[in-house]
Amino acid sequence: MTNNILQDTDVTCDYLTETTTLFFRGRWVRLETVRIGQGDSLHPEIPHAQIRDLDEDRILCTCMHGFWLQHAFVWKDWFYVFGTDYYGIWMIKSFDLHEWSAPEKVFDSEKSDVIHYQNNAIVYNGSEFVMALDLLGGPYFFTICFASSRDLSEWHYIPGAMYKPHFYTSCPHLVWCDGWYHLFHVRNHENGYHTFAARSRDLLVWEDSPHNPLLSPAEDERIMRNRWPGDTDEYRAINRSDLNLFERDGVTYANFHVGDQRGYPPGKGPVVHIRQSYYPGPMKEFLEKLYS
Description:
The chain is mostly beta strands. The chain starts with 6 loop residues before the first strand and ends with a helix. It contains one helix and 20 strands.
């Protein structure tokens, strides 16, 4: 269920969880996180990412094998993929989506065994790169913090930069526009997991959108996809999370994760799917609308 700014479409993608949609070397591609046991997986025994040509609906390659919660970022004709082993953030890159660099650890938890990294998202603000990432463990219970980098290979925490540490916040998606960081994230709210929007000029002081929550689970929705033989459980969709925005042909699209926020039996794959909404205008207009 969306609010009155985004409009629903009939687009759904079975099995998928986290995605990033980007324009790279003349084509629209989507990075898709693939979990162990996920349906239609080319490597069902190991977590990885796959990159799909959207217009041809064809998988171009797989990458980032052995890592989780991948996010893609394009910079100067290079395609970067960031993922986690839960103790650090790792990065690979490719010029052509065929040959990839070896995984490189670019951010760690300062030798801590209790801080775990989850999802991440990256933007460039005109002078440096900024990463939003959610932390779990120690003083953090799904808290979105921020780090910066000059070269995408070495990252450091930005002191004091976090969003509402007293709330459950996770699955960040970050957009930089007109001097504002726009943070889209999931928040535990009213017995479900809803997507909220906030913005900041300095990553220290935040303004929530008056239109929050942006995405909310429907009261009576059930997940009927991605079942396996012998599964008789009923799954209620209680989250709208992992938002990914992209603008194409003057229209802003929002892909998001629908699931039941539960674990799943090993080798069976998650009971989730991706849905899509849209705003009938460019990204800049959509972001302004959120605060009007």
